[in-house]
Structure prediction request, 169 residues.
Amino acid sequence: MSAADFVPYFTIPGSIIGVVTGAFVIWERFFRYQPTAFIIATPLIPGGAQKGCYLRVVNRSERPILLSWPTGIADDVLRIATDHSTRSIVKSLLHGEKAVVLDGGQEATFPVLTPPNWRSLDPDQTIETTVRWRFVQPVIWKRDRSFLVRISKRSYLHLLDEVEDDAEE
Prediction:
């Protein structure tokens, strides 16, 4: 066997390692520090029985990010307030946009408010909103990125422990 016969044994693993390395670099640059967001339920007051749903956002980066979401009343769209104050809830009703800064490594919870057609929604209907984000001081990617926050009415009610049992008697 000559040295040329061994070349395929090294080029194929080398190519695979190159593709994996390239994928890791792309993932690290664009997705590693993307914030995570999900809907949680916690008691409205410590030790209370009544729960409220909140959007929990975690900034996994060391740099501050700017979060923004649409405000206003629309069917099948979640509304997000910054806190439980009357001013914040009224601002979530007005058509426009709300923006907040989330410091590096910080997490925040924002009250989630149901859409006006909540009572008429089918239990499997999905309600959603789009949250945009970007680094306050961008290095490479200067445009806003976004993620979709989505939950079904049934799951929302399960979080609040308000779903009646479907068992037939």
Notes: The radius of gyration is 23 Å.
